[in-house]
Amino acid sequence: MHVTKRFHSEELELNMTPMIDIVFQLIIFFLVVSEIASYDRVENLTLPTASEVKPEPPMPDRLVISVDRDNQIIIDRRVLNIDGVEGYLRVEKKRGGTDGVARRPVLIQGDKYCEWSVVQDIMEKAAPLGFKRLSFSARKEEGG
User: Fold this and answer.
1) Percent of the chain at pLDDT above 90?
2) DSSP readout, 66-90?
3) Against a cut of 0.70, is the pTM above it?
4) Residue 135 above 90 pLDDT?
5) CA dist., res. 83 & res. 141, Å (int)
6) Which of 49, 74, 80, 90 pairs as cysteine with 84 (C-beta 3.0–4.6 A)?
7) How far lies 79's CA from each of 75, 94, 117, 126, in Å?
8) In the chain, how many domains are there?
9) How many CB atoms lie within 10 A of CB 68?
């Protein structure tokens, strides 16, 4: 008995639809992440310098409060007065926990030329609300 092999000359097609879906999802992911990361930055903020600067590990959940040279307090790209900051911190505390300690760390970025009494006011509003993890931004001195 003689067996013949039959070859089909079909061309294989690659379905690009799932690949395009994944690419679009990656693009959207990186756009969202970059938007969230930009909330930490405030335009034209000159940080004070320090001789010793300890690099901090990245904390994506931290609350960043900035004070610019005109003493405007900025949280999530919104300008707030000191009472608005207290209200914002109260909401954050409620989201944190029931033991009276706020879970979210706070980074205060004060401009080199701002009135530091504004930074002190922020600290005085945060402490009674249970915010215990406060840190400050600074630049390392040139040549130091």
Assistant:
1) 15
2) EE-TT--EEETTEEE-HHHHHHHHH
3) no
4) no
5) 34
6) 80
7) 7, 22, 17, 17
8) 1
9) 20
* 29 within domain boundaries: no
pLDDT tens-place string over residues 28-60: 888 877 665 555 555 666 666 777 767 777 777
**CA-to-CA separations, 108 to 37, 92, 120, 121, 137, in angstroms, rounded:** 16, 15, 10, 12, 7
Residues 94-102 have a mean pLDDT of: 68
- Measure the CA–CA gap between 119 and 138, rounded to whole angstroms: 14
Report which of residues 25 and 142 the model is more confident about. Answer: 25
| Distance from C-alpha of 55 to C-alpha of 106, rounded to nearest angstrom | 15
- Token readout for 85 is 């900051």
92 found inside a domain:
yes
How far is it, in rounded angstroms, from Cα 45 to Cα 68?
6
What does the pLDDT read at residue 134? 85
Name the residue among 62, 88, 73 with its Cα closest to residue 119: 73
Alpha-carbon dihedral of residues 89, 52, 55, 120, nearest 10 degrees?
0
Tell me the residue range of the domain where 60 lies.
39-140
In a domain, 24, yes or no: no
